[in-house]
């Protein structure tokens, strides 16, 4: 089956090519956040095995390594060449990960050729992720698995903040950049309402199999008081417990392509 070519001009997402910014450095001191994400992925993929997994927008391959425990082959599909250059070093001992310069809305893979797609920390740069959802649905096999994480605008503290103002949580994406950063052309950064994202996914041909509440204790104060080990152990308990409440700043979904 021939690869499907994009019919429209695909937006470029190469903002992380800025030589002044090193995404790997961003994760220094964020051991709790990284562990929370690994906990969610392990819980959602427990007992499952796949032939080919794609880590879409996976940066330097931070989570691609974990995917090798679940898939025979892993492709890191990343739009930033700088990130892929870092990945060559970070993944030098991980032969199962292939690295490709690709856009999330134009993966250049055959229809129905992939059985697992992972998207983490990508949607906050996409005010309208419909094209990406459509592309992921195209490359996934029927019954294929899609693990998605996104920044949650309806998390508990936000609901309190909106309620104090007598408002409801917006259903449309909320840009959390400052006016100065927007004017300076900073990378888009939006939070999404879970119900809006779920509707988009359903329209793209996915059904929700599982939900988790992520990074529930993300707070510099809590880190300082309790330390990462206690927070990580609590995170394991809270992810499924708070899932139906969309409590945390991140939402995790395991989806199945119909």
List keywords for this structure.
34% helix, globular, seven-stranded mixed beta sheet, Rossmann fold, 258 residues, alpha/beta
The largest sheet is: 7 strands, mixed
Describe the oligomeric state of these chains in a short phrase. Answer: single chain
Provide the CATH architecture: 3-Layer(aba) Sandwich
- In the sheet with the most strands, the strands line up as 3-2-1-4-5-9-8
CATH C-level label: Alpha Beta
Per-chain topology:
Blueprint: H1 23-26, H2 31-45, E1 50-56, H3 64-67, E2 71-78, H4 81-90, E3 97-101, E4 114-119, H5 130-139, E5 140-151, H6 156-164, E6 174-175, H7 179-183, E7 190-191, H8 194-203, E8 206-214, H9 220-226, H10 228-241, E9 250-257
Parallel strand pairs: 1-2, 1-4, 2-3, 4-5
Antiparallel strand pairs: 5-9, 6-7, 8-9
Helix pairs in contact: 2-10, 9-10
Describe the structure.
With 258 residues, the protein is of the alpha/beta class. The protein has a single domain, classed as Vaccinia Virus protein VP39 (Rossmann fold, 3-Layer(aba) Sandwich), CATH 3.40.50.150. It has helices at 23-26, 31-45, 64-67, 81-90, 130-139, 156-164, 179-183, 194-203, 220-226, 228-241; strands spanning 50-56, 71-78, 97-101, 114-119, 140-151, 174-175, 190-191, 206-214, 250-257. The chain has a seven-stranded mixed sheet with strand order 3-2-1-4-5-9-8, with helices on both faces. Helix 3 (64-67) links the parallel strand 1 (50-56) and strand 2. Helix 9 (220-226) packs across helix 10.
Short overview:
With 258 residues, the chain is of the alpha/beta class. The protein has helices at residues 23-26, 31-45, 64-67, 81-90, 130-139, 156-164, 179-183, 194-203, 220-226, 228-241; strands spanning 50-56, 71-78, 97-101, 114-119, 140-151, 174-175, 190-191, 206-214, 250-257.
